[in-house]
Amino acid sequence: MVTATLQASELPLPAPMEDIVRALADGQSSVQDPHGFLLALRLRQFVQTRGGLLAVTDLGRAYLAARDGSRVPARARVTTVDTESNTVCVLMGVYQPDQAVTVLLDQLVHATGAEVYELQGMELEVIANVDAERPEEVVLTDIRARPTPLPDTWRKDTGPVHGEEGDGQ
To answer: Which end of the chain has fewer CB atoms at under 10 Å, N or C?
Structure first.
């Protein structure tokens, strides 16, 4: 699902190729393919042959859902890291505040540049399909770690900076 969503949001299919996926998703079993796009769609696993008929796959449906649905910026927080299952649970206030979304650990490590042990409790800025019906359908993209705020003691006013009014120069 992540691959299909990334493709839909960052590098969408050419319109004639996407039209084939849409036609199959709408129930057509025979489509015109003058440009030979079916092979590329099969390789992407967006379409397949079932019982001698062309059909869209779950990955193809995920691609269309990502193209048609809304993706919005959101804040998120890592609540658990499970190295055994290679997953991370993330809470997003704009989705369902008490419902965790599962993200691949490798995806989060790669996107944030953080080490696995640094992820627990990390605040994130993401783009998400918050209109998803189920948590397993939520896909996060454009994941970035939110900067950690400076400690209060570092932010206290320490007086004018050299060269500003009031320092005698």
So the answer is: C
Which burial class, exposed, middle or buried, applies to 126 when counting CB atoms under 10 A from its CB (0-12, 13-18, 19+)?
Answer: buried
Distance CA 68, CA 79 (A): 29
Which residues, in sequence order, are bridge partners of residue 75?
125
Q: Which domains does the chain have, with CATH numbers?
A: 2-68 (no CATH), 72-145 (2.40.50)
β pairing state of 123-128 and 87-92: unpaired
Q: How far apart are CA 42 and CA 143, in angstroms?
A: 29
> For residues 121, 125, 131 and 133, what is the CA-based torsion angle, rounded to 10 degrees?
-30
pTM of the predicted model as reported, rounded to 2 decimal places = 0.70
The confidence score (pLDDT) of residue 163 equals 59
Residues 124 and 90 sit within 8 Å (Cβ to Cβ): yes
Task: Look at residue 40 and tell me whether its pLDDT is greater than 90.
Answer: yes
**CA separation for the pair 56, 24 (Å, rounded):** 6
**Encoded tokens for 22:** 């849409």
